[in-house]
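Please describe what follows:
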Amino acid sequence: MYFSKYERNLNEVKLLEKVKERNAVIHQVNAIADNGDCLERNVRDIEISTRRNPGKEGKLMSDFEMLFLVLMILSIVVTILIAYINHTKK
């Protein structure tokens, strides 16, 4: 494909702009990296503050909470069943 001299210059200018943008981003990243300790501390603080329960490490419930929930549901079901049986006896 043949490009005119103007089109080639235009493509080169666009390419240079992209390179400048990329270099600006790299410069920003490097500036942030220079403040590494501060950034690492902030990231750690953000991670801790976003967790609901920092001690559980991603677990939804402990075994005892799950057991408590199952027993509570079971007691409700048994209560309803007993009430139904008493109602049908009459």
